[in-house]
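Structure tokens please, single chain.
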Amino acid sequence: MKEKEEKKAKNCKNGKPESENKTKICFDNNLYLKLQSENINKRIKKFHNKLYLEFGGKIFDDLHAARVLPGFDPNIKIKLLQKMKDKAEIIFCISANDIEKNKIRADLGLSYDNEVLRLVDNMRALGLYVSAFVITLYKGQPSATKFGKKLEQRGERVFFHKYIKGYPNDVETIVSEVGYGKNPFVETTRPLVVVTAPGPSSGKLATCLCQLYHEHNRGVKAGYAKFETFPVWNLPLKHPVNIAYEAATADLYDVNQVDPYHFNAYGKLAINYNRDIAAYPVLANILKKITGKEVYKSPTEMGVNMVASAIIDDKLAQESAKKEILRRYYRAECDYKRGQCTYETLERNKNLVEEADAKKALAKVIDTAKRTSKASGYPCEALELPNGKIVTGKTKKIVSASAAVVLNALRTLAGLGDDFDVITDDILFPIVEYRTKILKSNSSVLTLDDVLVALSICTSKNEKARKAMAEIDKLRGCDAHCTYILPNAEEQTLKKLGINITCEPVFLSTKLFEG
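Here you go.
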């Protein structure tokens, strides 16, 4: 008994039990890498050593998957490509319409064209071969033309694919010299060609099929497959992980369904989403016309997805997915208040919360934020630490609620209690002066960025600040709730710290311009 106690004490960190320092996980990344790469290699061999693999979802920073499946490496797809890099090359697609509309990737706040550049730089830094860019749905849009020229001037291969009249139903026209034949062929040299994009509806599928048309005309019996993480084909239809996918794509009106083609062909239930199922007959006809034979018997069969086989704790996966469904609802509430989403999207998210029974998934942190705000009279943010303890922060004269709650969380994790000497006045007040006198800011309230900079400066001479800053990685994966809509910059900082933030759909002030 004494030995057990000594071992337990030895494993403590900062006076906390070992169990409090561990994050629960439900996903085995190594198993997933093994199974996924094996199945992709099988598909390459099936198609005579030339496969066009449509990569759906986020290729880097798949934060949705990481939230829904704790332990899931958000960069697992990149690690998969690194594992296969000697046989893989990458084509990036981006819709000319998305460039023209300046479409934004919400979780990172980057426009799609800038996101493409970021992704390519990151991939090349990891030794991956990005061979070309395809600008799809091109109709001469000025912004898309400018983006293409910018890439060409940097020595990149850029191809413009125009919209094909009658796509996708007029198969005779599509699979002809006046259809796919009119779009330029992207010369590729490796067995695996990954076709990816910064977001959905970017023309990945059309690019893959166009390439297949040209390959087969050249006598190369290339094939097509699809790699999407969600929905998970071999989890139940109403599994929270699959419902979380519907919540993430509520603005696209994606609905998960049992794949009738798969059931008819194999007598097995498989889950897919409405757009894939609806498009399958036409897609199957296009593939048959290109290849001269039936390639797949169902849309599910086109996919390569081993996610379910790597889930090691289904209960935790369900709990985490319910939290994500509720987060998506709060996001829709705030976006609707900002005028950034439709009422139909908001209602869809609300219905999915009911369907998944996810109303209480984040009750602890949400209730604490609301209760603390009501009792104090100040806007409040609450954050749940890895050990389940809740800390709070309020917006007052000096710091914002986000800055206060993160600072309180770091102090608590470092075992400093309510010690307020983590950031000294000689560092803090010059920042306030800089904001008000030099930047002429209307607010003297320090943001989360301001406070983290101040804390970083203090670490050079302040042992308490060093201890607090050393705990910052433990905030990753923590849930937080704010009683007002956060400014975009502050929300992005919380996301960079890995904090899962939700907000009440209430503006902090009545000002229309928040500059």
